[in-house]
Amino acid sequence: MEFDKRQLNQLTRKLNQLKVIDKSGVPQELNKAGMIAVRSMKKIAPIDTGNLRKNISSQMLSKKTVSIDSKAPYSGFVEFGTRFQKPQGYFYTSIRRVVKLLIINIENRIKKALK
After folding, report:
1. Which residues of 30-66 are buried (b: 16+ CB within 10 A; e: fewer)?
2. Is the CB of residue 49 less than 8 Å from the CB of residue 28?
């Protein structure tokens, strides 16, 4: 297969656009996904004193890593239940939804760059 100069320039431009997505697009989408996850968790987390909701947060650890935490010491008991209390899933329910959304958003950025 041979490329003429125009095709080679077009290929180079598309590859550079993909690099931009990797450098800025992925971190933006991760940060946005973290904020959406926190908002979703706070919306569906059960309320007793409000402490659980106050302790849900997200933080960018690196350009490709976001941390989503619930620092209330009883968070796991609420999420997974105990022998006295049934599970009230708020954390992983939100994470599953947001991961699907994150994948769609990154795929859309890639498709847009390759047009």
Report:
1. beebbebbbebbbeebeeeeeebbebbebeeeeeeeb
2. no
**Both structure tokens of 16:** 């550079």
Return d(Cα 52, Cα 16) in angstroms, integer. Answer: 44
pLDDT of 16 over the 90 cut: no
What are the tens digits of pLDDT across the range 67-112?
999 999 999 999 999 999 999 999 999 999 999 999 999 888 888 8
**Secondary structure (3-state) at 81:** coil
Cβ within 8 Å of residue 40, ≥6 positions away: 94, 97, 98
pLDDT confidence of residue 6: 76
For the record, the structure tokens of 30 come out as 């991760």
Q: For tokens 């106050």, what's the residue?
A: 54
Q: Would you say 58 and 91 are in contact if contact means Cβ atoms under 8 Å apart?
A: no
The C-alpha atoms of residue 64 and residue 46 are separated, in whole angstroms, by 30
